[in-house]
Amino acid sequence: MISRFQFYLLTINYILGTTLFVLIQRLVKQGGQDAWLMPLWAGSFGVLVGLFWILLLRYYPGRSLVQIPLDAWGRPLGTFVSVLYFLFFCILAGWILRNLSDFMNGTIMPETPKSVFHVMFLLVACYTVAQGVETVGRLNQVITPFLFFPFWLVLLLATVNWDWERLQPVFHSDLGAILQYHSFLGFPYMETIALTMLFPLVKQGAGRPFLLGVLTASVSLSMTLFMVIGLLGVERASRLTFPVYTVVQEVSIGEVIVNIHAIISVILLILIFIKLLVLVYGASETLRQVFRPKTRWPHFLALTILLSAMALSIYENPIQNGEWDEKYTFIYDSFFVLLIPFLLLVTTWIKRTFGKRIKRRMS
Amino acid sequence: MAYRYAAGMFILMMFTALLTACWDKTEMNELALVSMVGVDIDPDSGKKTVYYQIINPLSGTSARGTPGGEQAPVYTYEISGSSFGEIKSTIYKMLPRKLFIAHSKILLVSRRAARQGVRDIVNFIEMQPNGRSSVPMLIIDGPISQVMKTFTPLERVPSDAIDSRLKLLIRNSLLTGKHIKVNDVIERMEKSDTIVLPMIAGTTEKPSSNSGETAADIDANQNNFIIGGGAVFRDYRMVGKLNDAQLVWYHLLNGDRGRHVRRFQVEGKQVSVELRLVRMKRDVYRQSDQPVVRIRLDLELSTTWANEFVPRSRAEVERLESNLNRIIEDESLAFYQMTRERGWDLLRIRDLLRKQTPNHPYIDQAAKNAKVTIEVATRLLRTGSMNQPYEGTG
Amino acid sequence: MTGRRQNQSIRNDFFEDIQSALGHPPDLVCRSLLVQEEQAVHCVYLESMVDKKTIDDYILKSFTEHTFAEGEAPRSAGSGFLREVSFSDPYEELREHAVKALLAGHCVLTDFARERVCLINVTEPKQRSIDEPKSETTIRGPHEGFTESILTNVGLVRKRIRNPFLRFEKMSVGSQTGTTLLMVYMENLAPDSLVREVRGRLSTIRTDSVLESAYVEEFIQDRIWSPFPTLTNTERPDVMAAQLLDGKVAVMVDGTPSVLLAPMTFFEFFSSPEDYYQRADIATFIRWIRLISLFTAVFVPSLYVAATTFHQELIPTQLLISLSAQREGVPFPAFFEVLLMEVVFEIIREAGLRMPRAVGQALSIVGAIVLGQAAVEAGLISAAIVIVVAITGITNFVVPVYSFGMSQRLLRFSFVLLAGFMGLFGILCGALFLVAHLVSLKSFGVPYMTPASPSKGADWKDVLVRLPRPWLDPNRLPGYIRNLKRKR
What is the pLDDT of residues C354-386, one digit of tens each? Predict the structure, then answer.
């Protein structure tokens, strides 16, 4: 069991996870100097989706997302849907692993094979997840101060390059373009469905910390975007692959504080790790809850192999990734995030109403 | 239990795979530390030449406490090819160590390359993994190889010499501003703005290639290079040159805050005053359907270096201030007229209009026709260690 | 007549049997006295374990002077002094009792007049005097340390906590050694669940011998595969008293001065008892120094390796130039250099523990000059490495608990390996693994990383800072102890 605060932090870090360095550039491209508005409205969408899940989970207290189909639709179909979720989590995990290795190859370790990064991270993640959900929650809690303070400190140090003019004119971007950028809803907000695997394990209810976490993460994203634009300008931020990294790379204060970008890479890597933790937890927990194996570690081993292979083959180059992200993420995620929960909800309602009627008739 | 052993063995085997993971490992003595990059493009053939100035670590203070003495502090490698990417590979025909550009401090571009366009060059700099684009970019007035092969006295590494000179100039004069880095160039050019970069020129025709000789020569002006003049860039292309007097107005009107000392002729008398920008305000208002840009400069005056004349009374101070206001207004307006005639938007009026009136349909035209008024308010805030210069008895 | 003969035979057999049971030890002494004509009294004891003066002064004298009066026993100084076994008991039992008593330092007195065997406690434990513990010295504060005798140690604790709630529970472990264990706690402060847990774990120990408290520690610690100790040990009675007053449980083992204390959390290893004998601000500062030196000791060599062989862009230009100048002509990779020097350092350290004190000087000269300066000048290693190894070596000793310092050494090596293979990424993976391990670790049901996670705001008062005593609640216990009590 984890505490509400732990879950709140987990939600924030999960959302910020890969977003901070995969998406910033695309958001700036889309939103121009007003890109910092985008997380705000996307975040409110995230809250809506969150409310929707909470509604569903309320009907099944103590059951996780993958147990609900088993309850609602019976063993065969439920198992099928749960396996779909398992694959969904695996794909997401593979994705962020690949984002990670792209980042490492693109910045500090250009020649190291991608699989090495994947396997190293997966081994650590599997160890952590195998220790149980408390370890995941506590790990995140212990690490968060080491992410939060250095990140904002480094960005504050970077303000030596700040220029207000880069943010002007305010509110003059194409608001339509901002609203149309639907893939931002999919990634990262709809991906938070993996967190619902932890819902039953939060003491005193997970709903509020989850929604608060989504909001906090959106505000943080918005602030980060704001700073990136003010520090780099729209022109550069929309073209650089890792704007946050570049922002910090260009900081130089005196002779001492130069090249502090290692801090930012470490922060980004840890954030990815936390996201990976949640996804691996979701995947392994799905297996456990659906198939109830006696020993668990072979599954972790298998997961490691599966995910490292998936990460390698999920896309060939970041250009493909970008295109997928822009065109299909929303639709793809919607299937798991909106459609299936909606169907579950409908089934539940029908069952409840009919169940009540039948009961009434019986009595 | 057997499973456990199998799993343990498997994980161990994975670790043995990790044992080979030294792909990115490079020892420090396998690196060629680039301190300065020079780029030249031959306008006729389009051949690109890159000069890498590489620090010789042994020339500095070494572990054993003794400087390398006779060795040159830097070595310049010159390599050419048909594109910058190719150079990355062909450099190893000459260079025995791995090129390491993360610590390069200065980018020099030859004048003929600048005239042709620097877009390729800035892209090359920005794309380098591990390279920083927050390095100052300077234009070489004269042949590039001369500057790249000049040793500097006092600061033995030329890039350090240029870097610290630029820093001193930014603080102590208005000849160079803060926005001279590669990333500033990119930002301004992408907004179809203009930018002025400092220029650098060698002082002798035939520089000495022996660092010992340079170090032994008392005349620091010999075998050196000098920073002076500014290269005006528009659309990644050098379109003209400003002299030092014009640079002062350019930097003042762009909000740079160096303490610049300049001599003015006030009521027939010469007086040297130190100027420093305190605040600059630029706004736009409309006057009979034409945008008018009003620039207001608040300047801080100091008579620290005024060896000719120091005002004695409040009235004199006010007279000096109002005279200076007028002179500075006139001269900066004259500067603006000059730039307008040449079609350079050095005051970045287009950018200002774009921000203030984003929906203007013909922004380029409007920027050209905009009326500019400059108001200057100077205030004498500091005096030096003498409140009157010695005047003699005559 | 028959009775006497029987006594005679018992006497002969009895002594024979005892002698053979103990294997005819040279220190077995049998003294006979003729009391009232033929009624001999025999006094048997192990010379090496008893206080002969007591035997002479009290026991034998009482026979020679007034003999035994009716129903009167030799006078004694305390209870447990005398135990009687009658001849009428089964012979086997009689012998067994006698042998056990002899080994515990009693003297066995056969009194034929009353047909009984008296077992009289005349132990004089061979022990050193109380002096300052060598591994835990302090500038200010008590300089007493525990000794090898458990009774003395109990006395030292009692001297500090004059409280009827101080409880000692006696156990005996080790099928061969039969060592006495004492579980010590404050009944009113220590949570029941904790006491039960410790008692349960102690009772499951199955071993032949316990010679030091580390034997016990290995049996009752939470995890075998962890470099971190989940119990601490101390030789100082004031530390033990302080911990008992925090509601913890101590385990004293006879024959060793080091006492085990449980539960322990990660941050408690950074607070030394001395903190409380100093001004609060200074103590806080020193705590931070300790935390920083933990990070230095664990991470500096690995960060050096990572920065110099993978991420040279992180090093400031001037430093990079001088470092690379130092490396010119050095044959080994930096990773190997660091590993080499660290191993050499550990060897010197281990040698320093074992060597005779007389050659200490020679060894330190060899260590300092030959392996430092000379190695640099010979071009074997670069000068920066010597600094790195020296810094880590020194910082390693800052942590107040020696066993915790040992775990840092292990971690340091593994981080150097990771950094050598993967640079910063390797260090990061290692650090994440470490954090995951730490947060999953528990010490007797208490999460190891309390109060960082699970977090308890109020508990930070005595972790990263030490607040002045008057600001603290006088009846305050650590948060996790309070938690355990509440759970009950």
Answer: 878 777 777 777 777 777 778 888 888 888 888
* Predicted local distance difference test score (pLDDT) of residue B62: 44
DSSP letters spanning C233-252:
EES-HHHHHHHHHTT-EEEE
d(CA A196, CA A210): 9
Rounded alpha-carbon distances, angstroms, from residue A54 to A48, A73, B136, C171, C415: 10, 19, 54, 55, 43
The string of DSSP letters for A105-133 reads HHTT-TTS-HHHHHHHHHHHHHHHHHT-H
Distance CA B360, CA B369 (A): 13
What domains lie within chain B, and their CATH numbers? Answer: 28-61+68-242 (no CATH), 256-382 (3.30.300.210)
Which one of C308, C322, C382 has the shortest CB-CB distance to B61? C322
What Rg do the C-alpha atoms of chain B give, in angstroms?
A: 27
For chain B, which chains pass the contact test of at least 3 CB pairs under 8 Å? A, C
Identify the bridge partners of residue B371 per DSSP, sorted by sequence position.
Answer: B292
- pLDDT (0 to 100) of residue A51: 93
What backbone torsions phi and psi does residue A232 show, to the nearest 5 degrees?
-110, -25
Residues C338 and C209 in one domain: no
Residue among C318, C425, C439 minimizing CB distance to A135: C439
Alpha carbon distance C401, C319 (integer Å): 36
Cα C294 to Cα C228, C431, C459: the distances in Å are 13, 13, 21
CA–CA separation, B109 vs B238, rounded Å? 11
Q: Is C276 helix (H, G, I), strand (E, B) or coil?
A: helix
Assign residue A122 the CATH number of its domain. 1.20.1740.10
- CB spacing of B58 vs C325 below 8 angstroms: yes
In whole angstroms, what is the distance from residue B18 CA to residue A121 CA?
12
**Could you identify the residue written with the tokens 């390491």?**
B100
Which run of H or E residues covers position C83?
strand C82-86
Provide the whole-model pTM.
Answer: 0.89
Same domain for C281 and C243:
no
Name the residue range of residue A170's domain. Answer: 4-362
**Helical (H) or strand (E) element with C150:** helix C150-160
Q: Which of A356, A314, A358 is nearest to A114 (CA)?
A: A314
Distance of CA C300 to the CA centre of its chain: 30
Q: Which two tokens stand for residue A133?
A: 């959900």
Residues 86-105 of chain B whose Cβ lies under 8 A from any Cβ of chain A: 102
The count of domains in chain A is: 1
Of C310, C313, C432, the CB nearest to A124: C432
Burial track C453-464 (b if 16+ CB lie within 10 A, e otherwise): bbbbeebebbbe
CA distance B233 to B246: 15
Q: Decide: helix, strand or coil at residue C79.
A: coil
How many CB atoms neighbour CB C239 within 10 A? 26
Give B317-353 pLDDT, tens digit per residue.
Answer: 999 999 999 999 999 999 999 988 888 888 888 888 8
Measured between alpha carbons, how far is residue C453 from residues A158, C226, C440, C448, C458 in Å? 31, 19, 10, 9, 13
Minimum CA–CA partner of C307 in chain A: A262
Same domain? For C213 and C284 the reply is no
Q: Are residues C256 and C285 in the same domain?
A: no
Instruction: Give me the helix-helix angle, A4-22 and A24-31, nearest 10°.
Output: 70
Chain centroid to CA A239: 23
Is C51 found in the same domain as C109?
yes
